[in-house]
Design a protein that fits this description.
Blueprint lengths: L5 E9 L6 H4 L19 H4 L22 E4 L11 H9 L3 E4 L4 H8 L4 E4 L2 H11 L6 E5 L4 E3 L5 E3 L4 H9 L3 H6 L2 H14 L4
Parallel strand pairs: 1-2, 2-3, 3-4
Antiparallel strand pairs: 1-5, 5-6, 6-7
Length: 201
């Protein structure tokens, strides 16, 4: 998993509450178990018209936000079904950080397993960040996981809280498999010992 230490990039505003995982990645895209290629389906029902052409009014289709790395979203982001394809689609598009006042629990935890940093801020802080994100190509934020700070285009800083273990995993690019492999020496020792004590097993 790619490490997350410091991210500087354009932040796209999505002032919509209760964005569910079906809006993030519609069910038509759930046929694959690959983590790549889903970026094209991110917010597909909002990004594309019925004839497949782009909806010019959707934020990620606007020139200033096509390469956005951060999403500033409304309350209760990632609600609905528990599909892991939602963070896969965000990551494949290039979104590495989502900022909101609250997240659905399963989506929130899935983000950390896929290299995405979900940040919880207060309503007042979200309003300020949403205003920053409305600046188009000047909507550049810096998210520093080491210092736990968001720096806006005007240099203002917002501190955020994050569980130390989740922070450690993102800083070091550790997903569940990597965490297990860190214990490979202990696992091998246990298996050797078990084979000696129970050769019939």
């Amino acid at each position: 998993m790619e490490k997350f230490v410091k991210l500087t990039g354009v932040a796209a505003p999505l002032p919509v509450v209760n964005v569910d995982t079906d809006m993030i990645i519609p069910k038509d895209y759930l046929k694959t178990i690959k983590r790549t290629g889903l970026g094209s389906g991110l917010f597909a029902e909002a990004r594309y018209n019925e004839d497949g052409t782009e909806n010019p009014d959707f934020v990620l289709n606007k020139p200033a936000y096509r390469d956005a790395k951060i999403l500033v979203a409304g309350d209760n982001f990632g609600c609905g079904s528990s599909r892991e394809h939602a963070p896969w689609a965000l990551a494949d598009f290039g979104i590495r950080c989502v900022i909101s006042t609250s997240f659905a629990d399963i989506f929130y935890n899935n983000c950390f397993k896929n290299g995405i940093l979900p940040i919880v801020v207060s309503p007042e802080e979200l309003e300020k960040l949403m205003d920053d994100a409305e600046r188009g190509s000047n909507a550049v934020l810096t998210v520093d996981l080491e210092t736990r700070e968001i720096t806006g285009p005007d240099g203002g800083k917002i501190a955020f809280e994050l569980d130390d273990f989740k922070r450690h995993c993102l800083l070091n690019g550790l997903d569940d498999i990597s965490l297990t492999l860190e214990k490979s020496g202990n696992i091998a020792s246990y298996e050797t010992k078990l084979a000696a004590e129970r050769p019939w097993a």
